[in-house]
């Protein structure tokens, strides 16, 4: 497995900067790895299988993006006889340009397809960069509808009272929904690489999320359905159905699982993530059954105490979302006409 780090060009005027950077490198070499990454804002690219690459951003809170999606998502690409297919485009056109830069270091072939695993903005806000490359943007029909909704919702936020801040943060962003859709499955035959896209999670109010399977490479891109050592966003995703889906893909002929956040994992890493979800559900369920309110559960269950993972800032929301799903519905208010009359 090869790991590439991005490099920038150097000229004579950069020398003082390079010396300062060398000093910082020396200083930060003695700090934990994450400290170094945050300072330099690096990403890495792993060739997980021949001609299958994963672009992995460091855990950095981006300032120039939607404040609801400040953490760049992992993305990928595969080079085939018929051109390039890209899987997800991260949370900004700037990161998508990093991704394009890494593709162009390796090939001049046309970028045929961009596949969005879901409508999550941190996985599709880079789409516009690949429209410039004449790529066809693919997602499920439901995810496309969610992308259009997001674009409208973002417009509304930008034109609200404090919207000028958001406009400044997202200057130059053009939300670009998918251009080609499918319902449940789609197959792309790209010569030496077959790509199978399948919608797996849809149920009730869950967002529509697809996985991208490269059978000959035994590699599966799971988007938001799998985070590797990052606390996940649960949102309205049905957590029981989610666990079922993870069990299902654990049985597939796959040895490399690419997450929506974090580095590629093996089967054991995926199982660990599924076990985390099962543990979380059991913990929340137990506390609710003991009579704790959802607010008390959120206060008593501090996930980073048990799991030393990235995105600790998301941990309270992760618990809150599971509480919302598992808490018994509040009793309906008694209509005024049925209430005993006071004196
Ligand atoms: Zn994400």
- The top-level CATH class is Alpha Beta
- Helical percentage: 25-40%
SS elements, strand count: 13
Could you state the CATH homologous superfamily?
Ribonuclease Z/Hydroxyacylglutathione hydrolase-like
Mean pLDDT: 87
Helix count, DSSP H or I runs of 4 or more residues? 10
Helices and strands in order, then pairings?
Layout: E1 2-5, H1 15-28, H2 33-40, E2 43-49, E3 52-57, E4 75-80, E5 83-87, H3 93-104, E6 111-115, H4 127-131, E7 136-140, H5 141-158, H6 163-169, E8 180-182, E9 185-190, E10 193-199, E11 210-214, E12 219-221, H7 239-250, E13 256-258, H8 267-289, H9 294-300, H10 315-326
Parallel strand pairs: 5-6, 6-7, 7-8, 12-13
Antiparallel strand pairs: 1-2, 2-3, 3-4, 4-5, 9-10, 10-11, 11-12
The site of zinc ion has 7 residues, from loops.
